[in-house]
Structures are given as C-alpha cells and as structure tokens.
Fold this sequence. Notes:
By secondary structure, this protein is mainly alpha-helical. The chain is 60% helix and 4% strand.
Amino acid sequence: MPTGNMSDIAMPPARLFRIAAAGIFLFFTLGLALAAFTWNREAVYFGDAVYFADGDCYARMTRVRMFLEHPLTPIRHHEFENYPQGTAPHTTLPLDALIAGLAGLLGGISGDPLSAAGAWVSPLLGLAMLGGLAVWGGRIPYRNAMLISLAVSPIVSHGFLLGRPDHQSLLMLLVAVALAAEIAIWRGAKWGAVSAAAWALALWVSLFEPAVLLAAVLAARLACRRLEFSKIPAAIFCGILLVAFVWDGFRVAAFDPRFANWARNIGELRHGSPGILFSWVGWLIVPAPFLLGFRAFRARDPLCALLAWLLVLLVALSLWHVRWGYFLALVFAISLPWILISFRWRLAGWAVFVIALWPVAAAWEQTLFPDGEMFRARGESVADAVALRDAAVRLRDLPRHGVIAPWWFSPAVVWWSGQPCVAGTSHQSLPGIAETAEFFLSESGTPEIPRRAGYVITYEPDRVISNAAQILGREAPPNPLVKRLYEHPRQPGFHLVHANRFFKVFRIVNPGGSDAIRP
C-alpha cells in the first residue's frame, strides 16, 4: 500500500494553471470559431426547412441522397443535371460518406437528419481542424495566435460555413493535417505515414489544389535535399489513391467554349486583390514572407524557407483566383509562430498581430452589420430560397420530366422537387445551361423545347435575360420568352401550375411524342 505523501504525486500548481489556462483559451477559441462559422444561421434555418448556401451544395446533398439509397454503388454519373444526357462529375466519395455517416448519427435527434448533417458537416470539420492544430501546436510559441487567426478569418469561415456542405471544408482539414505533418517531418519527427495519408485523401477529394500544394512541398524538399523515400508512407499514399481510382474513377470533361462567359458568374473564379487578402488574414501578410526568409537565412532554418515559399505561391494564386484564399489563410496561420518569433519581445509580437487584424475586423463589421443595399440583397436571397422551395415542391408528385429553370436555381429545384433539370451549376452542365439560355431568350411564339423537357420555372426576367445573354455572348432580344411567360403567363403551349412572388411554374402542354404532358 502506498505510504508516500499525496503532495509527492500532486501536479505542480504552475503546471496545473497552464493546463487550465490552455483549456479555457481553447474553449474560447472554438466558441469564437463556431460563432464565425454559423453567423448565417438565420438564413439556413428559416421556417421549417434547411436552406443551403448555393447550388453546388444542393447538388452535393442530392448525391448524398443517392448514396444513402445505394450505399455500395459508386456515383460516377449525374442524371439530375444536364438532363437527360447527365454529367460525369469530379465530385467524389469522401464527403458524401461523411455527410451520410453524420446523418446516421443525427437520426435519433433530428426530424430531418440528412438536411441537418448537410448543414453542420462543415462547421464540425472546422472545429476538428482547430482542435487538431491546438493539440499539434502543443507549447509552440504563438500557437494561440495561429488558432485565433483561423477562428476569425472570413475566408476560413466561408469554407466551414453552416449550410455549406462543399468539398472545401474537408479539403481544408486534410491539407491542414498534411501541412502539420510536413512541418513535423522537417523538425525531425516521424510523421511520414500521417503526411502520406492526408495528402492522398486530399487528392481523392479534389485533384486540383492538393496536387499543386503537394508539388510545391516536394519541390521545396528537393531544393533542401529532404526528398526521401520510405516504403510505408509510399504504400499508404498509393493504396489510398488506388482505392479512390477504383471507386470514383478519373473523369475529364471536354472544354466548352462558353466556359469563360459562364465563369464570370462564379465567385471563386474571380481575381483577388490586395484589399481582399488583407480582409482575410490582415496586414501581416505583407512582411510575413520577408520575416520568414530572413529567419531562414539567419537561423539557417529550412522550415521557414518552406513556409515563405508556400506563402508567396499562395498569394500569387489567390490574386489569380480567390478559390486559393482558403489555403492562403491556412498556411499563413500555421506560419504565424515562425513569423512572430522574429520579434524579440513577446508583447511586441502580440501587439503587431492584433493591430494587423484591423482589416479582418472591418470585414466582419461589414458582414455582421451590412449597409442598406447589402441588407436588402440578403433579405431577397432568403426570400428567393423560400419562394423557390414553394415553387419546386409543386412538381414533386407530377410525372418525371426534365425541368427548364435558371441554371443557378437548378440544383435546388432538383433537391426540393425530385425532378431532373436541363441545367446545373457545374461546368459539365454547360451544354444544358446554354440550351436553357437559348430557350429563355427565344423570340419565337412556338419555341423549340430543349431536351424534351416537361416543365418550366421562370424567375424575374431581368436577371435571367442578362445572364443568358452573357453566357451566349450576344444581345438579348427586346421581348424574349422568359419575359413573356413571367409577365403574361397564358402563353400557347404552357399551362401555369403555380405562381408566387418570384417564381412561376409551367407544365409544357405538348413537349412532343408519347411523352406529351397535358393539363
């Protein structure tokens, strides 16, 4: 029986205080991040339904519904968009399975577990990333600055946003694990297996951004003579990619000449600017590569050279396309301990970090307290989503036929109605998008019905007309079909099924042949 004094085995007060303080700070940071990830909750949970952030999210949730219906069947074809030809999407299994698994866990506590899983999967992945980096960071100086930067960054918040079940959230988590493992390897730890698994899973989720980042890391390894081959990490990496290829295959979409016109509508494909970068990570992004480069030279620390190289690359890529901003914010935050350690006094480092967050605070002020025009736009967006659901559900019990609808609304129409759409929000749907645009701009009294569709959903004509003209690269006629249908619903060949404030639903009276639909 032990006879020693309890004070001999008790934890020292100083250590106990540090552990308690670290726990309280982590709890605070996770709460701050959760508030940032869910700032849009009133737009997601509205009335008795869950509304997702954009069309791609509805398309993802339709995939998950298909996965739950046939869990052992790979989904390599989307019939619900670009109907009836469909598409061969780049979307892959990992996030589908994750949402489906979360829906299973929520089955006993939610009336609509699938929608709840889709709404919450990204915020939960964001919290997992922060918690994992907190553990990985351990007692690294300025670890807390790294966590705060990730918790308050608007672009990180967008990646993990409530109601946004998009692949960026899982991709950011996997890239964060891969970069953390890479840093551990450069510091002498044996994290090769973790690095290999994280990079391979990230490539399974998306072949584009992780491939560029992995190539950049390997180039840095080669330049610093750290490129080593290990059998176990190589086997893990190749094994995961083999499973990915067997399940999801490898698909390449043909280039569509209208892509450039359509891409102008896609926010993530727009060019960035220094002001946007400042609003994501703060002013410290300007001296960060120089501070890291100076430390790499002075302390002969190749890890700082790696981080500087990644930051410079991601700044350039983010100025090209803002889709790279997620990874810029991630690499910047992970680099902060090595950036701020350049300051001799810790208080000075913290002061510089906090002051440099001023543009981030300004961006959040604009988000949380929008001006009149932005406030109205958000209200209209919510009203559109509610009205679109009201319109789409009118088709739920009607015979299965393709729906002609504005392309950005099409995935939501599929989700709410169960009917396939001629258009979609993926670039593989561009043939259907273009045919839908031709239909809406038709001047003919008896327009040609694309894809033998059976239904039409129209929206306020001004936006539909301008967007269709932009995609097709020509001037819009003075009185196109979408305007006639919206303003004078009693048009030959179309039977009005339902109308609300923003949308009108038509059944095409005679789309042709044996598939004719009659009122």
